[in-house]
Design goal:
The structure is a single chain. The protein is α/β, with parallel strands linked by helices. The chain is built from 20 helices and 13 strands. The protein has two domains: about 250 residues, 3-Layer(aba) Sandwich (Rossmann fold), CATH 3.40.50.970; about 150 residues, Rossmann fold. The protein has a six-stranded parallel sheet, sandwiched between helices. The longest helix is centred in the first third of the chain and has 22 residues. It is globular, with a radius of gyration of 24 Å. About 5% of the residues have low confidence.
């Protein structure tokens, strides 16, 4: 029996399907993604979680002329499958194959080569203003996750977007986590909203009762309206978006395809910035991925034997594990040692360290600049922080490394994972710039150990220094 997916050459084909066929297509897409990721590795749980949302967006908008901006972009597999890349999808993350991230070289539906968080809203604002300037009639949509929206660049983008006097849609994909559980006050803010029924109940009853109050003049209605708005502000944590100039809608079920389509159709031509809050489940449609979305966020190749699923791993220890083991030993003997990461506790090895020393590991969320500044402050207070950041992401904190660390000559220890080429993650994640920009800093010590004993020695040596240093190591086995 032929699959609907095999008949999809472009999003125009998606728009011709019935609702029943769309539901079948969603199942086929999930099966296709699971099959390919098991063979090649890749971002699994996040893509399974946005299947209906991606289909709904392509059903309502025409991204052959409208604009779709992805944040990070690792959740773009569904988008790729319905924009002409299904036939080659078996080459996902392979040399010369389909990229695991949006790629302008692959398709006109991919507007930017992206891989870092927080950028979608600002680039979408730029496209909205650019389109308006040249008279192009195109709707603009930015899709961002709840882990990315806490990034400073995302908030700067929201601040700019709120001033637009035109159609502009931000879709907040809220799955309660990024690679790891989302960190920070805004994450808590969104979490409180997800579990709170109070606001919706108050809003419903107020809407029902206010028009029924007898003998009320305009002034009294105004008072009641103010009361309603005041109560809304008291019990609704989404007011932050409305204060930034957005119309807030949601949260809506990100897996209810008919409702998603209906909601997007209502919002498509609203001539004002709108934020649509969509609640999705990471790993949806795959029991083992939904039960452990952290483990199956971006696994390597998978071995599936009946109900048992395991990641195909090398028998040799990875550099990341060697680093984690060394840090655990350092913390046993030096109480000044603390470790920080920017939303990558598993990738940097700090998840293992946190199990041994939970009070001495800090996950700052997707906020590399902030992470470096926190490390600088901790260092100034007498601690010896390890700023554990992927090479590709440390680029985002270039100014903070100079201003708050190097200029102050603070002995922060930068532990740079994923240095060098990183394989399947491609150009947006290669770590080949850190030597170039770090070697120009005054008194910065750079180390690149050759094996595990040298890595341990480098960390111990770093603790004796009174100047900043960086230890870089690859995504590989020792």
């Amino acid at each position: 029996m032929s699959r609907i997916l095999d008949t999809i050459r472009s999003p125009a084909d998606v728009r011709r399907l019935s609702m029943e066929q769309l539901a079948t297509l969603a199942q086929e897409i999930r099966a296709r993604i699971i099959d390919v990721v098991c063979k090649n590795g890749g971002h699994l749980a996040s893509n399974l979680g946005v299947t209906e949302l991606t289909l709904a967006l392509h059903r309502v908008f025409d991204f052959a002329k409208d604009r779709l901006l992805w944040d990070v972009g690792h959740q773009c597999y569904v988008h790729k499958l319905i924009t002409g890349r299904n036939a080659n999808f078996d080459t996902l993350r392979q040399a010369g194959g389909v990229s695991g991230f949006p790629s302008t070289a692959e398709s006109p539906y991919d507007l930017f080569d992206v891989g870092h968080a927080g950028t979608s809203i600002a680039t979408a604002v730029g496209m909205a203003r650019g389109d308006a300037a040249v008279g192009r009639d195109a709707r603009v949509v930015a899709l961002i996750g709840d882990a990315s929206i806490v990034n400073g660049v995302a908030f700067e983008g929201l601040n700019q977007a709120g001033t637009l006097e035109r159609q502009f849609l931000v879709v907040l994909n809220d799955n309660s986590m990024g690679i790891a559980p989302t960190q920070g006050a805004l994450a808590s803010y969104l979490s409180r909203f997800r579990v709170s029924k109070l606001y919706e109940e108050v809003k419903r009853k107020t809407t029902e009762l206010l028009p029924k109050v007898p003998l009320v003049g305009k002034s009294m209605l105004g008072v009641l309206d103010h009361l309603k708005e005041g109560l809304k502000a008291t019990v609704s944590p989404h007011q932050i978006f409305e204060q930034m100039g957005f119309i807030y809608v949601g949260p809506v079920d990100g897996h209810d395809l008919p409702h998603l389509i209906e909601t997007l159709q209502l919002l498509r031509d609203v001539q004002h910035p709108v934020l649509l809050h969509v609640h999705t489940e990471k790993g949806r449609g795959c029991d083992w991925a939904s039960k452990d979305p952290c483990a199956f966020h971006s696994p390597g190749k998978l071995r599936v034997e009946g109900d048992t699923v395991s990641v195909v791993k090398s028998d040799r220890k990875s550099w990341t594990t060697a680093f984690a083991d060394a840090v655990i030993e350092l913390m046993k003997t030096d109480p000044r040692v603390y470790a920080l990461t920017a939303a990558m506790p598993d990738g940097t090895g700090l998840a293992k360290v946190r199990k041994a020393q939970p009070e001495r590991v800090l996950d700052c969320g997707i906020a590399e600049s902030c992470t470096v500044d926190i490390a600088a402050g901790m260092c100034k207070a007498g601690l010896r922080p390890l700023a554990c950041i992927y090479s590709t992401f440390l680029q985002r904190a270039y100014d903070q490394v100079f201003q708050e660390v190097v200029l102050q000559q603070l002995p922060v220890i930068f532990c740079i994972d994923r240095a060098g080429l990183v394989g399947g993650d491609g150009a947006v994640h290669h770590g080949f710039l850190d030597i170039t920009y770090l070697r120009g800093y005054q008194n910065m010590v750079l180390m690149s150990p050759a094996d595990e004993p040298e890595l341990t020695a480098a960390l111990r040596f770093a603790l004796t220094l009174s100047v900043p240093c960086a230890i870089r190591y690859p995504r590989d086995t020792v």
